[in-house]
Amino acid sequence: MAPRLIITGSTGYIGARLVAMAHERGFEVVELGRRSGAKWRIGDEPAASDLEGAVGIVHLAHSWATEPQAAEEDNINIPGTVTLADAARAAGVPRFVFSSSTSSRREALNVYGRTKFRIEQHLAASSAAPIVRVARIGLVYGGPRTAMYGLMAKLAALSPILPMIGLSREVQPIHLDEVAEGLLALATQENQPPQTFVLAQEKPISFAAWLRMLRRSQGKGNLHFIPVPLAAALLACHMTKLVPLIPTVDPERVLGLAGAAPMESGESLRLLKLTLADPMVTLAGEFGQTGEDRSLSEAQALLQYLGIAPTEMQLQRLCEGLRREGLSPLGLSATVIRHPRLLALFEPPASRTQHRLARALYLADLASEPERHADQRAGFFGAALTIASDVLLFPLRALLAGTYR
User: Fold this and answer.
1) Where is the NAD-dependent epimerase/dehydratase domain (predicted)?
2) What is the mean pLDDT of the segment spanning 275-296?
3) What's this model's pTM, rounded to 2 decimal places?
4) Among 207, 284, 298, 395, which has the minimal tally of Cβ within 10 Å of its Cβ?
């Protein structure tokens, strides 16, 4: 008989993937919700027959009906979650997984973060506490381009210049499949104690770096920012509801970003035996090109820029070197890959040895060296032409110095 798993919020971005993964693993899935067979909404007392015999419950559902200014006792998510957890324990369900967020803080700027924090507190004080496991989830990406991920991907691809808040804030991306894997482990593994787990990349990155990653993975080149004050961003959110043909941005999401701060996730990932993939490699694959294909095309462009007709051995050496140094994929735009000479516009000064493109070109030079013949050195006129072009291109290179850094 297939083990039984109960999921709320099964039609959402995370929920739909979790349901699919649970079916793939052989679970019988009961979807609690308004549009499912087991009719239920947050605040309702679930039918005991829907809960009995389950190995676990994953609670993803969240009601947005409560007004942001409403008092805590009026927010249905808080008593509704506790009601569901208490009913689960009474029905003998051994594990209740509450889907929280890395924005869950007492002092969070957004209502969503403060609400999640309060629910965690109420669960800890409830009779269901012995079966509760809290999953604080980071910035989820991948899969269908909906929810926050879809919005960020659209914004990053919209223009090479983007007004944005919170550029220095640190975020912790995690792929949709990795979130589903973690939630499934929390709901089914018997050896995990009731506690708070963080599902997010162990090493945070700046929000600016994340947006650049999203743009480069779509073959759009680099992204430049115009810092925007929070008050202006919130006003712009309201304006997006009035202007057609542009993505609508919820102020709650802006406030969540403005108050973002990383959480330690290493121990949680170790306990759940989760190894998270490199977001850049994963994104490159999801946007139509595998990480291996992108690395190969970038390596070829680097060698061609240096005037080398690359051999298979040189490409192999360079791809390996770029991977080893954490430079692959580099994020070269599709135009630059097709026309490698354009790299002359972005090559940084020789003094900037830590620049990503400078390091990649140095590796390309090393990768080609074993097959290079001694008589292939440039003559006087070739050297003079190189110096002249460097002088002429200097202003452009200074202007574009931030690209591929």
Assistant:
1) 6-199
2) 80
3) 0.73
4) 395
